[in-house]
Specification:
515 residues, alpha/beta, Oxidized Rhodanese, domain 1, five-stranded parallel beta sheet, globular
């Protein structure tokens, strides 16, 4: 049974360093973006079942959950879900975010705030140099010789990048440093905005690249200067694992940062005791390398992506972190930055995955397996084949995100996201008719149908979800009308919000260190 904690007590616990409790904002990410407790991790209620084991491996971990305090009961429902998964130290913030605000406590806005603030601090204090879009365009027009690296993920790069950029994702940056240092040419790095570009430039400087700058405001700065982006063309295979960080430099950085090194047997031992002695394993290799073979209890955050979103992975500052690479020294850089951010215990798998293999230890392959709890739920909750769906006698509920619903839903379906299901079901005129639940993600439909059955309604989930409907010859329709008046549930990237949205985002990010 979850207990309660008041604002004063929670504020005292959050002020302790390192923070030893997990604080989860269980509202949708769109709501949390507009205001949340500092250092809280966004864990929308609809994702708890999927993410809680990765975020909090120990069921004894102290956890605080909160909603907006408006009385819709979402925090209590989230706490109940955590209880079902065995977490026995869960408390609910009395009065939620509303009580926190009323007490005059600080409220953060935006997403990945700790990482964004850290990037601005590095820019200010580490002497990272930058150039603006006009200067870069002049250099291009004059035919100056320099390297221009887009450090985002291959997917982001492929959608749109600067003319002349080549994709060197954060996972590859450290391995390219020695070559760049020997070459001596200027290296211009950029991301979509600021943080990853700043960290990439600072990383290269630490690894001996003397001539490196970051493009101020990244691709957004380029667009705001009136210039256009182009689709990125990834040439050849990823070099991840091909080049190692200079060993002497890597060792010096690790030692100076207080980074530990653990043999494969010790990592396996600690991973096997996560339930009682929590530790988080993060694989910083490329996604392709991770899928080809990884330690079963590790999560994937390639290279610099971890530093971009630490709050999404490391929910409890006091819990030790073990980083995994291919033994090429690249994890050292992520470890260095985590230590700079204040994480007290950061370690490396000595020798990386090659050493793990050499020790005869097992690796998992491919994406995460379907959880056993979901398999059991699929068997217990009745399903309906798409070809049996009759919209005249049944109500079709789409419990996915607003983004997915707008993009495409079964004709006649009504939108009611799973995070709001119990609180807003009364607004759907169902008159005891059977409800068939669907979503872009079939698992969300299964969980929602189970909830409806528990509440005493007649319900089933649509086999295959929306994709199953399409596979049977059905069509999806798009709309901008959600019918229900709910707070925003998703966060769109700032570069999709037009000129005003990009400017507002960049102003917010630059001002983080002033708060």
């Amino acid at each position: 049974m979850a207990g309660d904690i008041d604002v004063g007590a929670l504020a005292g616990l959050m002020a302790q360093r390192p923070r030893s409790l997990a604080v989860f904002d269980i509202r949708e990410a769109g709501e949390a973006e507009q205001g949340h407790l500092p250092f809280a991790t966004f864990l929308p209620r609809r994702l708890i079942e999927w993410r809680i084991g990765e975020l909090v491996p120990s069921t004894a971990q102290d956890i605080v959950v909160y909603d907006d305090g408006a009385g819709d009961g979402r925090a209590a429902l989230a706490a109940a879900t955590l209880g079902e998964f065995g977490y026995r130290a869960v408390r609910i913030l009395t009065g939620g975010l509303g009580a926190w605000r009323a007490a005059g406590r600080p409220v953060a806005t935006g997403v990945n705030v700790p990482s964004k603030r850290f990037g601005e601090e590095i820019l200010e204090h580490d002497g990272v140099k930058s150039i603006d879009a006009d200067r870069l365009a002049q250099m291009q027009a004059a035919g100056e010789t320099f390297e221009q690296w887009d450090v985002r993920t291959p997917a982001e790069f492929g959608r749109a990048t600067l003319p002349g950029s080549r994709n060197v994702p954060g996972v590859e940056i450290a391995g390219r440093a020695a070559e760049a240092a020997r070459d001596g040419r200027l290296v211009v790095v950029h991301c979509a905005g600021r943080t990853r570009g700043v960290i990439a430039a600072a990383t290269l400087a630490l690894l001996g690249v003397e001539r490196v700058v970051t493009l101020e405001n990244g691709t957004m700065g380029w667009r705001l200067s009136g210039r256009s982006l182009v689709p990125g063309e990834r040439s050849g295979a990823s070099s991840d694992g091909d080049a190692a960080v200079d060993g002497a430099v890597a060792n010096a950085l690790a030692d100076a940062s207080g980074v530990l090194r653990l043999a494969p047997a010790e990592v396996r031992h600690r991973a096997s005791r996560q339930a009682s002695e929590p530790v988080i394993l993060v694989d910083v290799r490329s996604e392709e390398a991770y899928l080809a073979g990884h330690i079963a209890s590790s999560c994937s955050r390639p290279g610099g992506q971890l530093i971009q979103c630490t709050d999404e992975v490391l929910a409890v500052e006091a819990v030790p972190v073990i980083l995994v690479d291919d033994g090429n020294g690249r994890a050292v850089m992520a470890a260095h930055w985590l230590r700079r951010m204040g994480f007290p215990e950061v370690a490396l798998l000595e020798g990386g995955i090659p050493a793990w293999r050499a020790a005869g230890l097992p690796l998992a392959r491919g994406p995460a397996a379907i959880p056993t709890w979901l398999i059991g739920l699929r068997d217990r909750v009745p399903s309906m084949a798409p070809n049996r769906l009759d919209g005249t006698s049944r109500i079709v509920l789409d419990v996915g995100t607003s983004r997915d619903f707008k993009k495409g839903h079964i004709p006649g379906a009504r939108w009611l996201p799973r995070g709001w299901l119990e609180a807003r079901l009364g607004e759907i005129e169902h008159h005891d008719r059977e409800m068939v639940v669907t979503a872009a993600d079939e698992s969300q439909a299964i969980l929602a149908a189970a909830t409806l059955l528990r509440l005493g309604h007649r319900a089933s989930w649509l086999a295959g979800g929306n994709a199953g409907w399409v596979a049977q010859g059905g069509t999806l329709e798009s709309t901008e009308d959600l019918a229900l008046d709910l707070p925003p549930d998703v966060v769109d990237p700032p570069y999709l919000k037009g000129e005003a949205g990009m400017r507002a985002y960049l102003e917010w990010e630059i001002a983080l260190t002033e708060r």
